[in-house]
Specification:
With 159 residues, the chain is α+β, with helices and mostly antiparallel strands. The protein is built from five helices and ten strands, in the order αββββββαβββαβαα. Helix 3 packs parallel to helix 4. The chain is globular. The chain starts with a helix and ends with a helix.
């Protein structure tokens, strides 16, 4: 009888270990911020559609001070996401096979937020969706609109 109880205890222990390991795997959502407009969500590379943010190495100038505006855009995105869950509405794939999507935190568009704060631009070449938000940021001199900057698409052409 003692041997049966020991075996039963071992079986239950092993089952509990597997349960907890699989429980945490299923429950976790892995989010990695790549730059101001790209994330990895559970291993899927997602590029925010309709906007463009400065490249990570890109700098801007404000009152003769060099500002790492690409880093600032990424940091703002990290701040917005925080510990919140992200929901993305997929819209297709781009030429680099990244998923194009508009993503939301607490039912609010991350793209709209970034553009209105002045750390992303309406990417008119591909979408007209965020033009009003960009006009708002420009009028209020939010973010990059208070600095001397180069549009990300122009920066990429040169570098």
């Amino acid at each position: 009888m003692y041997l049966n109880k020991t075996n039963l205890f071992l079986v239950i222990s092993i089952c509990l270990i597997f349960f907890f390991l699989s429980y945490f795997d299923v429950k976790s959502k892995e989010i990695k911020v790549i730059d101001g407009d790209t994330i990895h969500l559970d291993g899927e590379k997602i590029r925010f559609s309709g906007i463009d943010t400065p490249e990570l190495k890109q700098t801007c100038n404000k009152n003769d001070v060099v500002i790492k505006c690409g880093i600032q855009a990424k940091e703002l995105l990290i701040k917005i996401i925080g510990n919140n869950k992200i929901k993305c509405v997929r819209e297709g794939k781009d030429q680099y096979k990244r998923t194009l999507a508009e993503c939301f935190v607490n039912n609010k568009s991350i793209s709209k937020y970034l553009v209105r704060k002045g750390y992303a631009f309406a990417y008119r070449r591909y979408s007209k969706k965020f033009i009003d938000d960009e006009n708002f940021a420009k009028k209020n001199k939010n973010g990059l609109w208070s600095m001397n900057f180069e549009y990300p698409w122009d920066y990429r052409k040169k570098n």
